[in-house]
Every structure is written in C-alpha cells, then in structure tokens.
Write a structure and sequence with these properties.
Length: 77
C-alpha cells in the first residue's frame, strides 16, 4: 500500500514541479531574449487527456451496456 501511495505522490510531485517550472519560464519569456524553453506543451497534454477520458468513458459505457444501439447489434444480441 505504501508503494502505491508513493508512486501516486511521486507522479503528482513531478507533474506539479513541471507545471511550476513552465509557469516561471512563461512569465520570464516576455523580454526580447526568450531563451527559456517549456518542459511540457500543456495543450498537447490537455488534448491527450481528453482523448483518454473519452476512450475510458466509451469503454465503461460499453461494459455496463449503456452503449449506442449500433454497438449492441454488433455484439450479437
């Protein structure tokens, strides 16, 4: 149980540190010398997460039988 909590906490700290770093870099990039680079493209992360959430939601609906009529016909019912 400690391992799972440690893994989750480590992932949250890593994501939080990347977000904080990117926030600082973005605020310091307003000058003429924009040498700082972001670690993460947050728009890509957002799009990927939305796609993942949609896929998981679709699979869950399929498993519990809340899918569309076309998916129930293809299962052979």
């Amino acid at each position: 149980m400690r391992l799972i909590i440690g893994l989750i906490l480590g992932a949250l700290i890593t994501i939080g540190a990347a977000y904080i770093h990117d926030s600082m870099v973005a605020s310091s990039m307003s000058g003429p010398d924009q040498s700082g680079e972001r670690m993460v493209n947050w728009n890509v992360v957002d799009n990927s997460f939305d796609r993942l959430a949609g896929d998981v939601r679709g699979e869950w609906d399929r498993l519990v039988g809340r899918g569309s009529e076309s998916s129930t016909k293809t299962r052979g019912t």
